[in-house]
TrEMBL record:
Protein name per Swiss-Prot or TrEMBL: E3 ubiquitin-protein ligase CHIP
Gene Ontology biological process terms from the UniProt entry: cellular response to misfolded protein; positive regulation of proteolysis; proteasome-mediated ubiquitin-dependent protein catabolic process; protein polyubiquitination; protein quality control for misfolded or incompletely synthesized proteins
Domain U-box per the UniProt entry, residue ranges: 285-359
Start and stop residues of the TPR repeats: 154-187
E.C. designation(s): 2.3.2.27
UniProt KW Repeat keyword: yes
Enzyme class, UniProt record, top EC level: transferase
Native species: Cimex lectularius
Listed Pfam families: ANAPC3, CHIP_TPR_N, U-box
Transmembrane spans: none
PANTHER family: E3 UBIQUITIN-PROTEIN LIGASE CHIP (PTHR46803)
InterPro entries, per database record: CHIP_RING-Ubox, CHIP_TPR_N, TPR-like_helical_dom_sf, TPR_rpt, Ubox_domain, Znf_RING/FYVE/PHD
Coiled-coil intervals, chain numbering: 160-190, 230-269
Reaction(s) this enzyme catalyzes, per UniProt: S-ubiquitinyl-[E2 ubiquitin-conjugating enzyme]-L-cysteine + [acceptor protein]-L-lysine = [E2 ubiquitin-conjugating enzyme]-L-cysteine + N(6)-ubiquitinyl-[acceptor protein]-L-lysine
Lineage: Eukaryota, Metazoa, Ecdysozoa, Arthropoda, Hexapoda
Length: 362
C-alpha cells in the first residue's frame, strides 16, 4: 500500500478546504448583513455592486466593496473589527456619495453601535446613511437615540430636522433645524448655509401649507354666506307669493324681481369685499431675497457685504461677534466696518410691506 497521496488527492483536498472556508466567510458576511436589518441576500448585494467579487489571497479572502471606495479590499475579519478611526465623522461625511458607500458606512456604524452603544456619533453616522437612502423613519430613530445621549449634538438636530421635513412634519422640523442653527452659533461651528437653507425651505413649506388652508377656509366661508343669501331670497319670494295672492300679478312680479336684484347685489358686494381683503386665488408669498439669510425674517435694516450678500444688520453683527469674522455664506474674511447699508433693498422691502401688510406676520 502506498503511504503517499498522489497529486490529484492533494489538489482535491485543497479545493475542499477552500470551498469550506468560502462558505464560512459567506455565512459570516450574511450574518452581518442580517444584523444590519437589510432584507437582501448576498446574491442581491453582489448584483447591486456592494460586494462585487471574492478573491483568494495567500492568507485570507478579500471582499471588494466597490471600485470607487477607498477601502477596496477588506477581509471579513477587517470588516468586523475595523478600527474606530476609519469611521471618523469628517471622513464619513466626505466619502458618502452613493448607495454603495452608504451601505458600507451603514455597516460600520452598526458594528460600532453594537460595540459601544453609548456613542451618539455612531447613531448620527447611520442616520445620515438613512437620509441618503431616503429611510426617513429610521433616520429619525437614530437621531433621537443620539440626542438622548447628547442633546447638544448639532448634527443630531440637523439630520432629524431634514428627515422630519421630508415627512412633512414642518413644525417639529423647524424646531430641530432652529435648534441646530442656534447650537452651531453657540459652539462656533461653521456649517456655511447648509442648516440655514434647510430652515428656509421648512419655513417656506409650512407657510405654503398654512396658505392653502387659509384659501380653503375663505372659499368655504364665501360659499356658505352666498348660500345663506340665496336661501333668504328664496324665502322672501315664497312669502310674497303667498301673501299677495289677491294682488295684481304684475305687482307681485315686480316685488320678486326686486328681491332677486337685491340678492344679486349682495352677492356682488360680498365677492368684492373678499377680493379687496385678499385675492383668494392668489397665494401670498414673500420672495426669498426680501428675507435675511440668518434669521430668515423680512429685512428691516439690510446691510451688504463686499461679497454682495445682504443680511439683517443685527444678525450679521451677532454672527461676527459670536462665531467669527467671516461671511457665513461665502466664508470670506469679514469685519463689522465692512458692512454697508443697503438702501436700495430697504426701499424694495418698504414698498412690498406697504402693498402686502399681511407680510408683517410672515
Amino acid at each position: 500500500m502506498n503511504k503517499w497521496l498522489n497529486t490529484d488527492d492533494i489538489s482535491n483536498e485543497i479545493n475542499e478546504i477552500t470551498r469550506r472556508e468560502k462558505e464560512l466567510i459567506t455565512n459570516d458576511l450574511q450574518e452581518l448583513i442580517n444584523l444590519m436589518g437589510r432584507r437582501r441576500s448576498y446574491s442581491d448585494l453582489s448584483s447591486a455592486g456592494n460586494f462585487n467579487r471574492i478573491t483568494e489571497d495567500a492568507d485570507s479572502f478579500n471582499f471588494d466593496i466597490s471600485p470607487s471606495t477607498s477601502p477596496s479590499d477588506l477581509s471579513i475579519n477587517d470588516l468586523l473589527t475595523m478600527d474606530l478611526a476609519s469611521i471618523r465623522q469628517e471622513s464619513f461625511l466626505s466619502e458618502t456619495s452613493g448607495d454603495n458607500q452608504c451601505s458600507f458606512h451603514h455597516t460600520l456604524a452598526l458594528q460600532e453601535e453594537i460595540k459601544n452603544p453609548t456613542m451618539p456619533t455612531y447613531f448620527t453616522n447611520r442616520a445620515l446613511c438613512h437620509l441618503k437612502l431616503k429611510r426617513w423613519d429610521s433616520s429619525c430613530q437614530d437621531c433621537r437615540k443620539a440626542l438622548d445621549m447628547d442633546s447638544s449634538l448639532v448634527k443630531g438636530h440637523f439630520f432629524l430636522g431634514q428627515a422630519l421635513l421630508e415627512m412633512e412634519n414642518y413644525d417639529e422640523a423647524i424646531k430641530h433645524l432652529q435648534r441646530a442653527n442656534d447650537l452651531a452659533k453657540e459652539q462656533k461651528l461653521n456649517f456655511g448655509d447648509d442648516i440655514a437653507s434647510q430652515l428656509r425651505i421648512a419655513r417656506k413649506k409650512r407657510w405654503n401649507v398654512q396658505e392653502e388652508k387659509r384659501i380653503t377656509q375663505e372659499i368655504e366661508l364665501l360659499t356658505y354666506v352666498t348660500k345663506l343669501i340665496h336661501e333668504d331670497a328664496t324665502r322672501q319670494v315664497e312669502k310674497v307669493k303667498h301673501s299677495m295672492e289677491d294682488l295684481n300679478m304684475e305687482f307681485v312680479q315686480d316685488r320678486i324681481m326686486e328681491i332677486e336684484a337685491k340678492c344679486e347685489n349682495s352677492i356682488s358686494e360680498l365677492n368684492a369685499l373678499f377680493a379687496k381683503v385678499d385675492d383668494r386665488r392668489r397665494r401670498r408669498d414673500v420672495p426669498d431675497f426680501l428675507c435675511g439669510k440668518i434669521s430668515f425674517e423680512i429685512l428691516r435694516e439690510p446691510v451688504i457685504t463686499p461679497s454682495g450678500i445682504t443680511y439683517e444688520r443685527k444678525d450679521i453683527e451677532e454672527h461676527l461677534q459670536r462665531v467669527g469674522h467671516f461671511d457665513p455664506v461665502t466664508r470670506v474674511k469679514l469685519t463689522q466696518d465692512q458692512l454697508i447699508p443697503n438702501f436700495a433693498m430697504k426701499d424694495v422691502v418698504d414698498n412690498f410691506l406697504q402693498e402686502n401688510e399681511w407680510a408683517l406676520d410672515y
